[in-house]
Design brief:
It is built from ten helices and ten strands. The chain has 266 residues and is an alpha/beta fold. The strands form two sheets. It has a six-stranded mixed β-sheet with strand order 6-7-8-3-9-10, sandwiched between helices. The protein has a four-stranded antiparallel β-sheet with strand order 2-1-4-5, with helices on one face. Strand 7, helix 8 and strand 8 form a beta-alpha-beta unit. Helix 7 packs parallel to helix 8. It holds the Pfam family ABC_tran. InterPro entries: AAA+_ATPase, ABC_carbohydrate_import_ATPase, ABC_transporter-like_ATP-bd, ABC_transporter-like_CS, P-loop_NTPase. This is Sugar ABC transporter ATP-binding protein.
Amino acid sequence: MTLTADAAATPAAETRQPILQAKNLVKTYGRVVGLDGVSLSLYPGEVLAIIGDNGAGKSTLIKCLTGAELADEGEILLDGRPVHFKRPQDAHLAGIETVYQTLAVSPARDVASNLFLGREERRKGILGSVFRMVDKKGMRKKARQQLADLGITTLQDVTVPVENLSGGQRQAVAVARAAAFGSKVVVLDEPTAALGVRESNQVLQLVKNLRDRGIPVILISHNMPHVFEVADRIHIQRLGKCATTITPQSHSMTDAVAIMTGARKA
């Protein structure tokens, strides 16, 4: 990773311990090189955007960081310790939650059920241990609290089926679930894609709220205005490598696009 822009713009980053770090990741698919020695650092309480043209390696990088793919070479560290994610569930257990563009929500279930999807809580006593009854009341109470903590005001009723929600509200449900269980890192893959201006603004505010709560966020996006609005640092991928890492203060959107496309050297 190029450190010049980082060091110039955020000198404190040198003394902080990254919560998530990738070192020289390599991933190939036959003769196709997905990642060519990519390094990345994510610090506590920051939004790190990852941008790049199609085929730059953004998706491959995220998949390696979250257990969906295994890197051929390199090392991933979480809180300074090496980790080896062989599947997404390993990343989940370590506190890394990913919200993909396709949104893994269950449309027929209500908001509360989606927040606890795959992590349903049982009722106390014999009803839960023997009869395996789900604690719907308790999950709905916790769901309301989680939405309130994140500043999500567009979802007043957690008993509404997700299929009745707008695109932005569905995205909010997916992000809220990630925030509820992603104790260390939340990864958002194109969270504002296919959303209108108002709903996009709501999602961007949600990203800011996560940062304000101290939860570091990795944001993958093609939308430069959105990236420059919420990102603290911007990791630019090009041709399977990290071209450089910049900040919205050190570079303009035009600069970022030029580096991303190869029109300008980092």
